[in-house]
Amino acid sequence: MSDADEQWGARLKQARLAAGLSQKMLGIEAGIDAFVASTRINRYELGIHKPDLLTVRRLAEVLKVPMAFFYADTDDEIAELLFRYGKADSDLRLQVQTALASLDSYFTP
After folding, report:
1. 105 against 49, higher pLDDT
2. How many structural domains is the chain composed of?
3. Prediction pTM value
4. Residues 57, 65: contact at Cβ < 8 Å?
5. I need a labelling partner for 93 at 20 to 30 A (CA). Which of 1, 55, 81, 103 fits?
């Protein structure tokens, strides 16, 4: 198992715990058969298996996080920003977008 697989699983677990869901409930809400939901999510969290893209999309929707949160390479700071942005309401997201847009001149020579 690679470090990236472990990290992916740790992020899934972080989002699941923040949502207050059991492994079984997350799996069921993401459309995984109830009989195997807990085991499947457990294996994802341990990094033993990785879900396909459609399953990741459904997990992200249930957990209310952007899919990119799971794949933010090894940069935990970016992952944390993605996690918090995904949890923000539309007004706060607009404020963040406006603040970032105001930085355009900073990055343009």
Report:
1. 49
2. 1
3. 0.81
4. no
5. 55
Domain that holds residue 74: 3-107
Instruction: Report pLDDT for 43.
Output: 96
| Residue written as token pair 């997350």 | 26
CA-nearest of 72, 98, 99, 70 to 9 is 70
pLDDT of residue 74: 67
Residue 48: closest CA among 3, 5, 90:
5
Q: Is 88 helix (H, G, I), strand (E, B) or coil?
A: coil
3-state helix, strand, coil split of the chain in percent (to 5) is 70, 0, 30
The CATH number linked to 13 is 1.10.260.40
pLDDT digits (tens, 9 = 90+) for 50-67: 999 999 999 999 999 999
